[in-house]
Amino acid sequence: RAYHRARQDWQLQQAGQLLHQLKHYSLTPAQRATILTLEANWLAQQARWPEAAKAYERSLYLRPDNAATLSGLGNALRHIPDRIEEAIARQQQALAFADSDSRPDILNNLGLAYYTPNGVNFNFYFWLKSGISGFEVSNRREACNDQNRIHTRRN
Length: 155
Hints:
Blueprint: H1 2-8, H2 12-22, H3 29-45, H4 49-62, H5 67-78, H6 84-97, H7 103-114, E1 115-116, E2 119-120, H8 123-154
Antiparallel strand pairs: 1-2
Helix pairs in contact: 1-2, 2-3, 3-4, 3-5, 4-5, 5-6, 5-7, 6-7, 7-8
């Protein structure tokens, strides 16, 4: 909690010190992956994109199915010259592991990756169409679930 509070308050030096202290503990691979993702987020918050990308990659080595880490890597890669295609690929991988809560954020990140300084990547239009239809299907499913819950409560 202290790390999150420090990072949210933009006390980046304190957040970095807390991360450094955590690395000295005996950690499971899942815990180490979480610490590496936190470190990558911290580096990205400072626009240290190549370092953030390396930290995300080390985290993914330990836990390759983490949607948030894949998306974070995609965001970092988007800021590194000549790595935009890789950024798009990481965002697409993140979508494969995303739950319904994280999917909108990852779709937004994928859209940002498709938008390049030279204009919109051609594949953007295909992504936009599939993202919108996926969002509509998801919303219809949620509406049906809500109706079922209401119907169940009445009975």
